[in-house]
Amino acid sequence: MRIIKKIFSSSRSTEDGIFFDKLEKLLGFKPNNLNHYRKAFTHRSMNKMDEKGNAISYERLEFLGDAMLGSVIAAHLFNKVPNGDEGYLTKMRSKIVSREHLNELGKDFNLIQFVESKVSPQHFGENVHGNIFEAFIGAIYLDKGFVFCEKFIHKKIIKPYVDIDRLEGKVISYKSLLIEWCQKEKKSFTYEIYDDNGTGSQKFFGVKLHIDNKVIAKARATSKKKAEEIASKRAYFVFQQKIDNNS
Amino acid sequence: MRIIKKIFSSSRSTEDGIFFDKLEKLLGFKPNNLNHYRKAFTHRSMNKMDEKGNAISYERLEFLGDAMLGSVIAAHLFNKVPNGDEGYLTKMRSKIVSREHLNELGKDFNLIQFVESKVSPQHFGENVHGNIFEAFIGAIYLDKGFVFCEKFIHKKIIKPYVDIDRLEGKVISYKSLLIEWCQKEKKSFTYEIYDDNGTGSQKFFGVKLHIDNKVIAKARATSKKKAEEIASKRAYFVFQQKIDNNS
């Protein structure tokens, strides 16, 4: 394995190497075949064709990724909410895979940095982030198969982003839930911005949440508010037992 | 493994044994956990609950099966039609998983024989066959996981039932295609009904297609016409090379 990897590494171009490294960081594993990901980030304005003359763009992969997301989220909801009927499960899945939510995910993953296009990103349309996000999921499925794709969706999407209580409207904001608990328990808390980079639509904020002068959670997102909310949610799960006992 | 199987067999009730055997025949493999399939065939009129008080009926499993079918068919179309764009793929998938088609599949699998209900089948509504069919797919996924479920869908649904040329309207009838070829090639052909059983909506027809006095294909379906069409399609694939060379 090591030898194969070495040969592979040495035959890669520098550009491929950078793409591979960035992808690996995003995926949390080594991609097998970069071509699938290249397709997922190719806008149709590039007019690319494969060796058989079929058009290459992320649009076909969107269809595939949408289907994979749909079935993984369906299985997750089915197991997680054993008393939810068909109508409930359908409604919850629609919320999770809504255009709005997928656009957020695409932005948070900053996938647009990889897109190859002959038109400027301003002309992509507002759903481009969600569309590329779906295509990215499709590429993971082609590259690694269903089981791996499912694991990725669980680790990188369901765990950090999908919160059934919140989707049901039971929890409006984890930040306010956490602040309330800190005040009740007489604990000090601070949200510290430690990272603030990128420009325009690619701007990113990193937030550290300190409770009693200890960093309890960190989060990075496209707005300060969102990063604070994600960090609060992470802290909430750290303290969940305690908070639930106090409420 | 053999010992475990023996213990399992001897501890099964006769009723479970019959259910197990019928399922095995339908699935083409041994089910692990009969409970998933029992749920897939339980109508809500039974008012069954699990040990935690959650209602048991096939409706939740329909949601799961629909999602699994959707993703397996999506991956199949994606691979099979490399020049089909997102709109084409979406349209073809809708045709394959249409209510009408799923109802046909449910009927051909004769799944209604397994349904436990306190209301008579006449009151189930016309989509019951498709609904149980989806629930059945959901049960296979729970029992055996995605990869197995995908194999089942390929072997028992896509291979015998999904025909892209026909869905595209390129082939209207395999029977007429085959007859035309037989006449051109001066081959004799007969459609022989060898099986005609069941009553009412559960009626089944078995058809053998003889070409030059040799049985080339067999098929069983809920109407004589459908069984002839399926047998013709099977024979078509046997002779495909020859037919394509002649047309």
UniProtKB/TrEMBL annotation, chains A, B:
What HAMAP family does the entry give?
Answer: RNase_III
- Gene name? rnc
Q: What region holds the DRBM domain?
A: 173-241
As its record notes, the protein acts as a catalyst of: Endonucleolytic cleavage to 5'-phosphomonoester
Pfam families for this protein: dsrm (PF00035), Ribonucleas_3_3 (PF14622)
What is the recorded function of this protein according to its Swiss-Prot or TrEMBL entry?
Digests double-stranded RNA. Involved in the processing of primary rRNA transcript to yield the immediate precursors to the large and small rRNAs (23S and 16S). Processes some mRNAs, and tRNAs when they are encoded in the rRNA operon. Processes pre-crRNA and tracrRNA of type II CRISPR loci if present in the organism.
**Known EC number:** 3.1.26.3
For the RNase III domain, which residue ranges apply? 20-145
Coiled-coil segments on the chain, per record: none
Q: Which Gene Ontology CC terms are recorded?
A: cytoplasm
The cross-references to CDD domains, in alphabetical order and at most eight, read: DSRM_EIF2AK2-like, RIBOc
| UniProt keyword Transferase present | no
Q: Which GO terms describe its biological process?
A: mRNA processing; rRNA processing; tRNA processing
The record's PROSITE patterns line, in alphabetical order, gives: DS_RBD, RNASE_3_1, RNASE_3_2
Entry similarity comment: Belongs to the ribonuclease III family.
Write down what this protein is called: Ribonuclease 3
Any single GO molecular-function term of the entry would be: metal ion binding
Cofactor requirements of the protein: Mg(2+)
What species was this sequence derived from? Flavobacterium amnicola
The organism's place on the tree of life at top rank:
Bacteria
Q: Which SMART domains match?
A: DSRM, RIBOc
State the InterPro entries in the record. Answer: dsRBD_dom, RNase_III, RNase_III_dom, RNase_III_sf
Q: Where is the active site?
A: D66, E134
Binding site residues for Mg(2+): E62, N131, E134
Per UniProt, subcellular location reads as:
Cytoplasm
Write out the entry's keywords from A to Z. Answer: Cytoplasm, Endonuclease, Hydrolase, Magnesium, Metal-binding, mRNA processing, Nuclease, RNA-binding, rRNA processing, rRNA-binding, tRNA processing
Mainly resides where?
A: cytoplasm
Keyword Transit peptide assigned: no
